[in-house]
Amino acid sequence: MIRLVASDIDGTLLPYGESDIPAEIFEEIDRLERKGILFAPASGRQYTSLRKLFAPVADKAPFLCENGAVVFGPGNPGPVLDKTVMDRALAEQLCRSIIALRGVDVLISGENTSYLCPKDREIVDLMESKGNNITLIPRPEDVPEDIVKIAAYCPGRLEETWLALAKPWKNHFQVAVAGAEWVDFTLADKGTGLTQLCAALGVELDEVMAFGDNFNDEAMLSIAGRPWIMEGADPALKERFPNHCANVADVLRTL
Measuring CA to CA, which residue among 48, 83, 42, 49 is closest to residue 65? Predict the structure, then answer.
């Protein structure tokens, strides 16, 4: 029996380039909630941004935020059920390495705030468009709280950013490409977040259905009892997960 559905957003619920969750998803979340099945968005986005994106159902949903580094329960606001904190000295060193790269900006995530040391307005405008809580700081050392995720924003420079950062940092943090413009660093992943959420809710992993489309969803898909991969996913991922779908809502209607 499925008691929890966890789903990636960009490329899964939300086609790349679009900004609004389809209304049919909210209808299915409401229907599932009445049947005692919770729906948990799982994303690299922050809590405030996710609540705005899922506004019609935000109070009844738990959220796996910052790629699983912060887990919120249902409510308004929901309680923090788990938080995975990065080593402060290493996190600041990584931030400085990102800032040193030409054409690359750093985004530093606290529990529910995005801290930026912007080189220009582009990353600020982007985060504002996503509805994030934003604080501008002169340097990474000025972040006033625990750091849970660091992201390199590298439009047009993804490959060179990956080559510059992945190898020296992969032994310290989880490193993942997130879309075409981001490289993310955390101690957690969506699998970590899902495990902690299930423990807090008393749900077995075998009772979870999960949806994803990218390699940063792999840890979550690997531990869920019923994983689904999107038709547009990388062929290597589609080989690993036999259940494929073009539309999440169509699968939800079978529950």
Answer: 42
